[in-house]
Specification:
By secondary structure, this protein is of the alpha/beta class. It has helices at residues 7-14, 76-86, 104-111, 129-138, 157-167, 182-185, 187-192, 214-224, 235-238, 246-258, 281-286, 288-291, 295-310, and strands at residues 48-52, 90-94, 117-121, 140-146, 173-177, 197-199, 228-231, 263-264. The protein has an eight-stranded parallel β-sheet with strand order 1-2-3-4-5-6-7-8, with helices on both faces.
Length: 312
Amino acid sequence: MTERPTASTQRALAATELSAPVFTPSPGNPPPHPAPRKPSIVLPPDSCDAHCHVFGPGDVFPYAPDRAFTPVDVPKEKVAALHEHLGLTRAVVVQSACNGSDHTVLLDTLAAGGGRLRGVALIGETTAAAEIERLHQAGVRGFRLNFLPHLRRPPTTDEIARVAGRVADFGWHAEIHVQGSGVVEHRALIESFSAPVVIDHMGRVDISEGLDGHAVRTLRALLDSGNVWVKVSGIDRVSMQGPPYADAVALAALLVRHCPERVLWGTDFPHPNIAGDAPDDGLLVDLLAEIAPGRDLLTRLLVDNPAEFFGF
């Protein structure tokens, strides 16, 4: 029988719900799962959620006026409660496109993390050097590049080069967000970085092409380059089957077996811009038993690799 959350945990997870949201969420931005199950596996100490977001609350941290979507308010307290429920003690908070270049909510979250959090920023050519320094001191260790049309205009090659140059002295990594054949189309760019690169959500490949499709072969080749990491997160986005996402779990397990020293994992909580209901994050944790079977492999994925990559 699946273990359900305790009453106290459910209260903690619900404590920061807002009765009257300031912003109306866009279609495709459902609320988090109402009662994520308690995982049946016990995670290693210092396990890290390498990809999550903090949204609002909107009356305190307003979303960008020119945002492409509006999420459900999920403030830092609710994210922390979910991590405690799952057994995760470290996390990487990724700045969302709905906040644009205003990193106030990210900085607030990192300040409350007690050294257990790192961040990924959205910066541009106009981001002041003092702002980059402030972000680094707060715990930011990378910058994200979105190539999804619904998340603003993709950056040009020249813009990317100038941004990479601005953060080079800080040792930040580049985080690449693509989908479909994007990992193939942007392979040359990915290989051009001298800084480490991480690809979000297994490149959000079209899994209907199979585990030997062009995009998956490209992911494997990039991992072999030695400078590229892959987040085996977002299985609910990649899957064409729905829970328990067997097709996407098989892909994640393949990538972990192929290059266990350069893979990371995250919840993607609270799962913005998805089709259907938000996944059960407890289930996502339990599926790690198939993605990274065995204690040694699980510890590498959740503890050792993120400690190296994000500098915990």
